[in-house]
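Note to self: the last two entries modelled the partners one at a time, which told us nothing about the interface. This time every component goes in together.
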Amino acid sequence: MGRRLLCLVLATAVWLPLVHVLFRPRSADSASLVAYERAQLDDPARRDAELGRIRASNPEWDLMARSFYVWSLAELASANVGERRRALDAMDVVIDDTRRLERERGYTYFLLPYGQDGAYVVQPQASQFLDGELALMLAVRATLERRDADLAELRSRVKRMTARMEKSPVLSAESYPNECWTFCNTVALAAIRLHDRLTGDDHSGLSRRWVETARKKLVHPETGLLVSSYTVDGRTLDGPEGSTIWLSAHMLRLVDDTFATEQFALAKRALVHRAFGFAWAGEWPTHAPGTRDVDSGPVIPIIDASPSSSGFAILAARSFGDAELSLELGRTLALAGFPVRDAAGLHYAASNPVGDAVLLYASVVKP
Amino acid sequence: MKVRRLLYRALGIAVLFVLAHALGWRAYLCVLSGAAPASAHPTFALVAGCAYLLLYFGVVLVAPVLVLAAGFETAWRHVRPGYGVKKAP
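The predicted structure of the combined assembly is written out below.
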């Protein structure tokens, strides 16, 4: 019996370090991911069905899938001039449809139901989630091709966002009643920064004060990581979370690269797990355990693997040029993301349209 | 545990995985992302998705270990011919 057990232990010791060789990220994946997203866009019935499916789980994902797709197209178009016209046309379809939905259904259309309950502390009511993501969509589009109508709308949204942020002691606007999210406010700050580049306006003072305030009031004391959500006056609601911090660090690169890099390094230390050439990310640091919700998604116990946090970690690793972590996370995606390659392109069976859009963005984002 | 039993177990995992794959349970892996399945009762999708996940990792991680262990055990018997042979009382 002892010898047989020894054989099993030996076999495990031989096999586990070799598994990663079978799961390598492919360089052509971004093109296949784009092809899949385009196939969805070209087939409105299919896309509506997919978006309807994710809306049943979380209406926020509808907007996020759109945002990450548009941001991805902007990255692609900026890297490939020949792709620009096609990308711009695709971006316009998504942006126009999103604006139409906001106009017809109101800003709560993309919010969870509790977004309609209760009054926002800062008036007039608006959601930083929608304003920030749509503003960044408009900003990246305008970076590629300036249109007066887009710039006017961008300016209007930036004016509303900054006015609401200035009314908060922690310079943050609500996405939900008395709920400010780091995710949304860092997206908004990135949009404001791009807006300033496009228009010549200057909101650098707000950005600088936001970072100073965040360092003092919005970081978790034990980990140094930005908390995920807080009230308008800065009381923490949710501590640091992987589904927030990776994207926030990426967005903060446009605002304060030093702070962004610090947050990325801290998130790596607190959330990343590595074994046998693979890496994955947890949702909560050990010192700041949280509870599962619609943002965290399922978290695989024992190994503390969060698909949501791991997907965003790929984006951050590529954004910050961490090739080793990017490779290890990419292997895990190839192992546990269950890639589906068909005539339409590439998507992941273990993911959903917003996850696919995040992974697309991760595959094209530049360090 | 006989060598053949190790191989049967590896084969069993592989057959179950192929069966789950043929039944289309891969589509239910979307539950891992918190998304509702396109067409199935959520509880069934959760069970089928988790079963597929376990079988997949069984094929990728466990079955090769069983096959390798069977190989090591066979090699051991060649090196030590008396090993594993029951002696008469």
